[in-house]
Amino acid sequence: MKNVFYKFMSRWTSLNEEDQRAIVDEIHIEEFKKGTVLFKQGDAPTKCYFVLKGCVRQYTIDEDGREVTSNFFTEEQFIAIFNHHKPDKSSDFTFMCVEDSVMVVGDLNTEQDMYNKHPQLELMTHRMIEEFLSQVQEEFAAFIASTPEERFKTLLMKRPSLIDRVPQHQLASYLGITPESLSRIKKRIHQDLL
Predict the structure, then answer these.
(1) How would you classify the pairing of strands 67-73 and 101-107?
(2) Residue ranges of the Cyclic nucleotide-binding domain (predicted)?
(3) How far is CA 76 from the centre of its chain?
């Protein structure tokens, strides 16, 4: 599993092999069972995660008690909450493993120590955050401007593995539609392909 992280660091940094090995030797890798909640809506997170294997769902519980899925994190994606602006540092989201998962687990309390020890790690994190925010802006703009069917087609094009990895009701919530509407869209697209 550490090889996945090596590959990822090589993509994002110019660290030499010795520095990469030093960082990898310090990281903590954990396995999580399907259904494990990493942290809940309202909690103040103390950890960040990097998915080596598996799938994690980000969702909120609305005022009516419904779960609203806003993202899925899969291999080579990091999970962090940007909530430093909030006085209580609480998360607006719950993060739960949709599959058995293996992740690098970082302690936010020792994050600065790691950056001081490995300055390239901070640069890597900065670049990852920039790309993530850019991607989120792009996806949000496309989501707002598209129909449910277009959203599903985009998902098929950009993240096709999610179709088989997550339950349909969660996928429907992520697309902003009902499970019944998703079934109709899938059937229509399947018929168009025939």
Answers:
(1) unpaired
(2) 11-78
(3) 9
Q: Which residues pair with residue 56 across a beta bridge?
A: 73, 97
Q: Which one-letter DSSP state was computed for residue 62?
A: -
The amino acid at residue 113 is: D
Q: What is the CATH number of domain 2-145?
A: 2.60.120.10
**Range scoring the smallest mean pLDDT among 60-74, 118-132, 141-155:** 118-132
Q: For residues 24 and 36, give the distance between their C-alpha atoms in angstroms, rounded to a whole number.
A: 25
DSSP state, residue 93: -
Distance in angstroms (rounded) separating the CA atoms of residues 17 and 174: 39
Q: Where are the domains of the chain?
A: 2-145, 146-194
> By the 8 A CB rule, do 98 and 165 touch?
yes
Q: What is the pLDDT of residues 82-100, one digit of tens each?
A: 776 677 888 999 999 999 9
